[in-house]
Design brief:
Radius of gyration of chain B: 22 Å
Number of strands of chain B: 18
Oligomer: heterodimer
Shape of chain A: globular
Structural class of chain A: alpha/beta
Largest sheet of chain B: 7 strands, mixed
Number of helices of chain A: 17
Radius of gyration of chain A: 23 Å
Helix content of chain A: 25-40%
Chain lengths: 535, 529
């Protein structure tokens, strides 16, 4: 990027993660001059591919894609910009008794597999799938919605609320019932109503705890079960998958679309602070001292960084500062990336079969999952953690040298607030993860050529995720919808005029959805049209 | 054929009695059928040792809604409330106890010994919770609106409530919305730093629940409790003569208004013909025809054991089976030869006059719950203790005391052994826990009654041993209690109603479910006339 670039823009986007890039792309397409500033040397934020060890390319943080909004793929024409999603078929769950559960996208195959464990559950699985698809239809439009504020005194808020109520009313009684349960129950309580097979419930419930400091028995974890059925509505294409070239390829495709629309993107551009005048954002000051002015600043980094680090809190209302201070991050997950000389051989299903091409989930029983959580509650990493493993090099050989593999292990729980020090416990944590997997695939240890261990502390330092929370703040009910990130400030605006939020800390939250980025851009553009954006 | 009654009420618990009294007041002549030899259900006073009378299950009389006490003139019928100045004494293992007084200013002064900051914040918390509680209070006496076809009256009441909600200071409004889904542990740590205070307040969110302070949604339970008793420290009132005196007064009021109450009458089933409830059949075979049958029993007992399953839609039955009613509470009642001596208290009896909280830290409470998750009772349980004889010496011989201990957690099903074989071990764990705070207590024990979930179900008829008839989680309250679509005290069987804690607004001795149900039943019966 040329150093003599402009010094004034319509909009500056802080952070070149996928949401920041989505916002930039939409603003640029609307004719605004946009500058994206990324602190690191690569784009993508947590959706990034890096060659950590020579020849081995890792999706360092986020590793699968499921919910990238179809309208974004369409509107930004991402396939033309190089996005290719490869299927990730199924979830393989080794059990401790030598058996396994292997669910695949093919409904009938999965049904037969479940029947091996329980005939009743196989039948319930059909009904469950149908119910979930219905629920997904109800929830999906909410993702693209600017949250209503039930305390707002204006009639529009009231009408929005009423409209939401009417949509709920229009559901069948059975669906209403499921919906309420999904929003409030624990994943296990919810699944208990449908299934009896312990391992099935354990492995399904895992999706409910990812990125949260909750256990599978904690109320509020059922909701995420739904996400697995929202991709499927649009057909198999957008269910779970990998991006060819790793997760960073998604960010690169979005960046490409943004650039094509005229956005400027700079890396190695760390921001020291957001410049304000008379309570309005006027631009940013880089760490190298350079000042860049803009009509609007959109921050895709989390609210703690935005408001407590990049601004002086005295510029903000004290209530708001209090809300941001108590916004909960408390990261609970870590990541172990392994460069392998070969493929792991699972004791319960030996060989290099298709089960290695999907997700491999170390979630053998409900108690196992819950005990992993119990340890984290009291400040320890799980001695036997939940691990979600993928081996993308099987599907996309470009990410590893010939015959070699990359294995990505998402680990929970690794509490940010450890009793002890992550810098000294990092390798012990890595060993625990490897030992855990090796209990099911004993040859693993001899295959490991390199190992990268990322603790929540590393996620914070390296990727700017406060307390290592992968979703920029917990996805719990009291931090969702009109409460995300703070009550009264869930509509992408902030108490500082011309400063907007567009990251995962806004509705509808984290994961590679792009929805916060798009929603924020839409809100901002509408404010712009109505003359709310004024210097 | 015996004469047809207006209304038959199955179960003479406090809600059944309240319903009977209100229905009698409305001009009907209800008949209450109680299986046991005494009315009261979970609100009873029983002799646990010769000369020692104890509120065997519920021990806090504070929650009874004041307007019910007034409208039924309970004082005239013998109820005498006793209010301690210390609502809660939170015990510290190192003798640094924390009293929560009726007067929040005194509490703040006591708190200053622990934390200056908390002492300052307590007042605001007390006020805020009070405002929210008082706002939500009218909800307790409201029939939850129908979600599908709200009636004009419901809509009006809700709009009024919405108006009140908007009139709340915005800060409180957001608190109300945020607190509901939260874990009560998070809620209290947003306010306070003193662990003992955190734990004592958080306990209100987990009382009676199969959840620990880290369980999301326990905030909602705290809000329900705040509506029942807006005071930040929770209920503390006692009744002279124990809880049984309260239900005796309710029974006297109901009788005075024209209700009939029969004890020792075990209802075997509800008589359903042509899809309509026609009366009940007793275990003796006696048939009692009635225009309306009202069940004070919990939803599971009502639909799964009093009704022939073929009279219900399988989908409905399935949902009732999934109604979560697995309890977490046990009870230990002690007859004591002399007053217990707690470490660090120099004989200040007034401090022991309210509830005594054992559970010094959030983590302590959570660990107690952890055990229950894996099917074991807590080795170090959370205990809500009262010594009713401090304010009401009539319950025991002179100088002697009774101690009533509500214990969490005691899961419905044990993984190792069963309750019959583990009952005494459970009692021992409780006494040992008490002994840590009151050394020498064991040697003062003359008799011990241990009530496990097994007895709660077998003796008191609480399915799953759940003292609230079912979890008060976000998906089982208000319009969803017991089930979405059936929260208006009516059931899929015309003529059959629910009036117990399994309906809105849930458990505790408020009388609200009974009085709400009576209002709906009276309206239906009048319409049918």
């Amino acid at each position: 990027m040329s150093a003599d670039a402009k010094s004034h823009y319509d909009a500056i986007v802080i952070g070149g993660g996928h949401n920041g890039l989505v916002t930039a792309a939409y603003l640029a397409r609307a004719g605004k001059s946009v500058l994206v500033l990324e602190r690191r040397h690569v784009l993508g934020g947590a959706a990034v591919t890096e060659e950590v060890f020579p020849g081995f390319k890792f999706s360092v943080c986020s590793y699968v894609v499921s919910l990238l909004r179809p309208e974004i793929i369409r509107e930004l024409d991402l396939p033309r910009h190089g996005l290719e999603i490869l299927p990730l078929d199924g979830t393989f769950t080794p059990m401790s008794n030598g058996d396994y559960l292997w669910r695949v996208n093919d409904h009938f195959k999965t049904r037969r597999e479940i029947a091996r464990h329980s005939k009743l559950d196989a039948e319930a699985y059909d009904e469950y799938g149908k119910a979930m698809v219905d629920m997904g239809r109800f929830v999906k439009p909410i993702l693209s919605m600017t949250p209503v504020d039930p305390t707002s005194r204006d009639w529009k808020g009231f009408v929005d609320l009423l409209r939401l109520g009417r949509r709920f009313q229009a559901l069948s009684p059975g669906d209403q019932y499921n919906q309420v349960q999904l929003m409030s129950m624990s994943a296990i309580d919810f699944l208990d109503q449908w299934f009896e097979t312990d391992v099935l419930k354990a492995t399904m419930s895992a999706s409910g705890i990812i990125g949260t400091f909750l256990g599978v028995r904690s109320p509020g974890t059922a909701y995420v079960l739904l996400h697995h059925y929202m991709g499927e509505i649009d057909g198999a294409f957008r269910s779970w998958g990998f991006a060819r070239g790793g997760t960073g390829a998604i960010s690169n495709a979005i960046a490409d679309a943004a650039r094509e629309a005229g956005a400027e993107i700079r890396t190695n551009a760390a921001i020291a602070r957001i410049a304000t005048r008379n309570g309005k954002a006027t631009g940013v000051v880089l760490e190298n001292g350079q000042e860049i002015s803009a009509q609007v600043v959109c921050s895709s980094v989390d609210p703690r960084l935005t408001f407590l680090k990049m601004m002086e809190s005295k510029l903000l209302p004290s209530d708001f500062v209090e809300d941001i201070e108590r916004y909960k991050f408390r990261g609970s997950s870590g990541k172990v990336n392994l460069a392998l000389d070969g493929l792991p051989d699972f004791r319960c299903l030996p060989g290099k079969g298709a089960h290695l091409r999907g997700a491999i989930s170390i979630s053998p029983s409900v108690d196992y999952m819950e005990r992993a959580y119990d340890e984290a509650k009291y400040g320890h990493f799980s001695r036997r953690p939940y691990v979600d493993i993928v081996i993308p090099s099987l599907t996309d050989p470009s990410v590893a040298p010939p015959g070699k593999h990359v294995m990505s292990c998402f680990v929970q729980y690794a509490p940010y607030n450890l009793k002890g020090n992550w810098d000294t416990e990092r390798e012990a944590f890595g060993d625990t993860v490897v030992d855990t997997i090796a209990e099911h695939a004993p040859n693993l240890k001899s295959l490991i050529r390199h190992r990268q261990v990322l603790t929540p502390l590393d996620l914070e330092r390296e990727f700017g995720l406060s307390e290592g929370n992968i979703f920029q703040g917990e996805l719990t009910l009291e931090q969702l919808f009109f409460l995300r990130p703070a009550p009264g400030w869930a509509q992408y605006r902030t108490p500082v005029r011309n400063l907007y939020l567009c990251g995962s800390a806004t509705h509808p939250g984290g994961g590679i959805m792009g929805a916060p980025g798009r929603n924020a851009a839409m809100k901002l553009l509408s404010d712009w049209r109505r003359g709310r954006v004024r210097a | 054929m015996p004469e047809t009654r207006d209304v038959v009420i199955i179960g003479g618990g406090h809600n059944g009695l309240v319903a009977a009294a209100y229905l009698a007041k409305a001009g009907f002549s209800p008949l209450v059928l109680e299986r046991r030899e005494t009315v009261g259900g979970a609100a009873v006073t029983e002799e646990i040792h010769p000369g020692f009378r104890c509120p065997t299950l519920a021990h806090s009389a504070g929650p009874l809604l004041p307007h019910i006490a007034r409208e039924l003139d309970l004082e005239r019928h013998g109820a005498r409330w006793l209010r301690p100045q210390v609502r809660v004494l939170a015990l510290s293992p190192v003798g640094k106890h924390l009293p929560l007084y009726d007067d929040p200013a005194r509490t703040a002064t006591a708190l200053a010994r622990h934390s200056e900051k908390d002492a300052q914040r307590y007042g605001e918390f007390h006020e805020s919770l009070g405002r929210i509680g008082r706002l939500a209070r009218p909800l307790l006496s409201l029939t939850p609106p129908s979600v599908d076809a709200p009636e004009a009256g419901d809509v009006w009441k809700l709009l009024k409530l919405g108006k009140d909600f908007r009139r709340l200071p915005r800060k409180d409004a957001y608190r109300l919305l945020r607190w509901g889904p939260m874990a009560v542990a998070d809620l209290v740590s947003e306010w306070f730093q003193t662990e003992l205070l955190r734990a004592a307040i958080a306990a209100r969110g987990i009382y009676g629940m199969f959840g620990g302070p880290w369980s999301a949604g326990t905030g909602a339970n705290l809000l329900v409790q705040a509506a029942i008793e807006p005071h930040s420290a929770g209920p503390a009132d006692f009744i002279q003569g124990g809880m049984g005196a309260l239900t005796a007064a309710l029974a006297a009021a109901a009788r005075g208004l024209g209700a009939e109450i029969r004890c020792g009458s075990h209802v075997a089933r509800v008589d359903v013909r042509d899809g309509q409830a026609r009366g009940v059949v007793l275990s003796t075979g006696e048939q009692i025809p009635a225009r309306a049958v009202v069940s004070n029993a919990d939803p599971k007992r009502t639909f799964l054991s009093l009704i022939d399953p073929t009279d219900l839609d399988p989908d409905f039955l399935n949902r009732i089976r999934n109604f979560r009613s697995s309890g977490a509470v046990g009870k230990v009642n002690l007859a004591l030869a002399q007053p217990p001596r707690f470490q660090g208290l120099d004989g200040d009896g007034a401090l022991l006059s309210g509830r005594i909280h054992i559970g010094p830290e959030i983590d302590y409470l959570e660990r107690a719950f952890d055990a229950a998750k894996y099917g074991a009772f807590s080795p170090h349980p959370y205990c809500d203790v009262t010594i009713p004889t401090v304010l009401d010496p009539s319950l025991a011989p002179a100088g002697a005391h009774v101690m009533s201990v509500t214990v969490q957690y005691a899961p419905e099903r044990l993984r190792e052994g069963d309750w019959a074989s583990r009952r005494e071990a459970f009692g021992d764990a409780v006494v040992q826990t008490l002994e840590e705070y009151a050394p020498g207590l064991s040697s003062a024990i003359l008799a011990r009654q241990v009530i496990t979930p097994r007895e709660l179900e077998d003796v008191y008829g609480l399915t799953g041993g759940h003292i609230f008839h079912g979890e008060q989680a976000l998906d089982q309250i208000f319009t969803m209690r017991p089930l979405l679509g059936w929260a208006r005290y009516r059931t899929p069987i015309p003529g059959l109603y629910l009036c117990g804690a399994g309906t809105h607004p849930g458990g505790r001795v408020t009388g609200a479910p009974g009085s709400n149900a009576a209002r709906e039943i009276a309206a239906d019966l009048k319409r049918a006339r």
